[in-house]
Amino acid sequence: MAIYHFSVKAISRGKGQSAIAAAAYRSGEKLVCDFYGKEQDYTKKSGVEHTQIYAPENTHPDLLNRQNLWNAVEKSERRKDALLAREFEIAFPQELSQEQRQALLSDLCQDIVKRHGVIVDAAIHAPHVSGGSDERNYHAHVMFTTRAINKNGTFEAKKYRDFSRDDGTKTVTEWRKNFADLVNVQLEAIGSKERVSHLSYEDLGNGLEATQHEGYEVTQQRRRYEAEQQKNEEDRDPEIIMPDVAQANDAIRQRNADRRSDRQEIKGLDQEIIASNALLSDLQRSKAKSDAEHAQQQQIALERKREQMAAQSLVDAHKRATDFHTAFDPNRPDKSLVTQYITDYALLARHGKQPQPPAPVEQPQPTWWQRMTGQQLPPPEQPPFFEIDAIKAIAQSIVEHEQEQAQQQKWQRL
Questions:
Q1: Which domain does 183 fall in, by range?
Q2: Total domain count for the chain?
Q3: Which of 51, 55, 170, 260 is most buried, most CB within 10 Å of its CB?
Q4: Strands 83-91, 120-125: parallel, antiparallel or unpaired by DSSP?
Q5: How many CB atoms are located within 10 Å of the residue 273 CB?
Q6: Sequence-ordered list of residues with C-beta below 8 angstroms from that of 117, at least 6 positions apart, any chain
Q7: What CATH number does the domain containing 121 carry?
Q8: pLDDT digits (tens, 9 = 90+) for 277-322
Q9: Nearest 5°: phi and psi at 99?
Q10: Is residue 244 domain-resident?
């Protein structure tokens, strides 16, 4: 399956970042930063498949050298919180060869130069399979300057505003779509039927759930845990556990796979129904009554099977939604449990079958002894029930909490 990934990042001095350090890491080279007086040596880094600088035709030759380019950027930006560069991080479909990856990267970078008049420094990274990385994870870092090249071949005095607060969202959306179009052109050129889309699952309306970004630390912890599971049980370190966000993502991927499988089966049934309809039409024209009746019975059986599958999905969703209220702890909310309940609730709602609160437990009648002694019966414990708005609010708070944790971890790393 062709994958799509396109993220936009900012390299900022205000975050303690250096354009020289970023360029050295992405290119696997040794560069010296004049601004900080520090050498950045990444010559031992493996997996750098290809690097290239793209620039307008009239760019001064000195700026086509990686060290000169990013030192010039550091020198031109005087503010202590200056934005030094922007970066597109893209993933390549596994169907593409090395030559096709480079062609796709070149198309993207030339479009950036043409539209914004900037210098682009790009690098393709191969997956670190020995370190546990997915062998399909070919990706590229596309760094580009925040200032365009003027008619003299040097940097403009002012930064271009395409990614400003007013136009940034529109610009990024256009680039995400543009890259999806470039990928699809490449896939079509190699005869692949796979296609990608820049739209989210929500925008596509396909009912699938989006996973949370795991980041470097979670990915490393996942790999340590998976490596630990390869050992004998008595030799495993019990303190090496799968991160919560990784567990939640695995559960989401499984649910998405189950939904895709169900849809494929239903699609197959639909295709069988279409074939049966065509057969029925042919038999009716040939007045073969017995064959037509058999085809009609086959169609009915297939339709009933599809209806049964849809009905079973509703039954399963209703049971999970019912069990949710006894399993859910609002003081320690489980993200996967909350997400599943919201999905099930939406499915039931589309069929007019929203979960209803259970009937209240009535006060039991006191015994004759309790009446004589005047004992007061405690009120019966009512079965729990959580309204959907409250569950959605909890889901939102979980997401916000995870984002805060991710931001804190990011600041700690910086």
A1: 6-198
A2: 1
A3: 55
A4: unpaired
A5: 16
A6: 56, 148, 149, 160
A7: 3.30.930.30
A8: 777 777 677 666 777 777 788 888 888 888 888 888 888 888 888 8
A9: -65, -40
A10: no
